[in-house]
């Protein structure tokens, strides 16, 4: 095999691989996918089937998943949205979950057992989570599972935010979490992916894939002039979003949070801390 397949995006192990890869990879067996959905507020996608394994990303409620193996409480699977491969807890998935009709547009919202904010919430959902809505009750939507969610915190899945940068700005001061993808904690590329998804733009999960797959290159000089709101600034292993021609918004381990700061000092600090130079600036159409 001459092509090296990305392990993050390829459902293939030495002992098992997806059926559609038969003839492309070597494996002892091949399996057809079983379609399932995430039914918990979010679920950790880990590199190995154990709770202390590296967290690669998180799958949000309503996400569709292709499951290739279920074993000892773990499902080896591929997320349909961004093709990421890993292990999800089996109890976070269901094969009979209804197709979502709405998604969470607020940074975070609660699911109540009835149409009252005074009731103890059943769970909380982060921006981008999806729900199947089957009814209404006053100021609440009613989910297929009987939960009640404040109407203004949801929108139908075909509604897209006009400004993805404004979506990203809602995450200001949210803690940094490697592999995280919720308002409890997220990393730099998750901030970009979630914000773009809210605007109806599909994006890969990791910064290197985003650098390759998003937008058009913007020429830049030492002074970093001529940038625009919405430009994406890339380093090796890092990405941020310009909120204006001089200001960068990013989730960074430097502050362990999402911050907004002048781009040039951020560039100089990242270089001084061995993060390397800016590798690309990309502009969406």
From TrEMBL:
Coiled coil: none annotated. It comes from the Bacteria. Gene3D superfamilies: endopeptidase domain like (from Nostoc punctiforme), SH3 Domains. Keywords: Hydrolase, Protease, Thiol protease. Pfam families: NLPC_P60, SH3_16. Residues 158-285 form the NlpC/P60 domain. Belongs to the peptidase C40 family. This is NlpC/P60 family protein.
